Amino acid sequence: MLIAIAAAMLLTASTPATTTPSQVTDTHGSPARAPAEARFLVEALGRPDARDALARVAYAEAGDQGASGLAGVVYTIINRLSDGRWGRSVAAVVDAPYQFEPVMRAGGDWRRLAPVSPTQEAKVHTIVELALQGRLPDLTGGARYFQNEKIVAGRVAAGAASPDLVAFGGVSPSAKIGAHSFFRNVAAEGRGVGGRPHRARARHVSPIFFNAASGKSGEKSEAGRPSAK
C-alpha cells in the first residue's frame, strides 16, 4: 500500500522540533486551524503525560501494525480530542468509559498500561508532530472509531457479541490499515447505541462482550472497539 509506505518513510525522518500554534494545520491537510484551536491542540498534545498516554495506547492497540497502524490509532485519538465529546485532554479521551479495550482491561487508567521504550515513545512523538504540521496526512480519513473486524466477527460467531457490532452496524470504513478498519461515523451515532460517541450514555448502553484473549466477560469497548489483541 503506497500510503503505508509513504507514512513509514516519513516516520524514519529525524524527530521534528515541537510544533507551535502558527504551524498547526487541519489534520486532513487543510489550511491552518483557527488560532484558538491550534493553541488548544498544541497544548493538549504537548503535555508529557499526553505523549506518554498516546504512546502506551497506540502500542497496546496497534504495536504489531507498523508505523501506519500506530498513526491510525494516534489520529483517531487526535480526532476525538478535536471533536470534544470524549473529553478535552488526551487522558480524558483514552480513559473515557468503554472506549479503548486495553485501557478497560487495565482498570480504566492508561497509566496502568505497560510503559513503552524511549524509541517507541519517540516514534509516536514524531507521528504527532508530523500530524500537527500537516506533513503526515490523516490515513484514517478523519476516523473517530476503529475495530478489528475479524475479531469482532469471531466473537459474533461464538455468540459473545451482537451482530450489530460488525463494522458498527454495517458502516463502510473510511480506511483500512493493517488489521484495523477505521470509521469516521457509525450507524448508531447520536442514538447512544452500538458505537456510542457520548460518554455520559456509555454506562447505560454498553453490551457485554466475551474477552476472547482472557476468557473473561467484560464491557464492550467502542473506539477501541471489541477487538483487543
Give Rg in angstroms: 17 Å
Number of helices: 10
**Spatial order of strands in the largest sheet:** 1-3-2
User: Could you give the count of β-strands?
Assistant: 5
What's the number of structural domains? 2
Structural class: mainly alpha
**Proportion of beta-strand residues:** 5-15%
Helix and strand succession?
HHHHHHHEHHEEHEE
Give the rounded overall mean pLDDT: 77
Q: Outline the biggest β-sheet.
A: 3 strands, antiparallel
Morphology call: globular
State the distance separating the first and last CA atoms: 23 Å
- Low-confidence runs of at least 5 consecutive residues: 1-9, 21-25, 190-220
What percentage of residues falls in helices of 4 or more residues? 40-55%
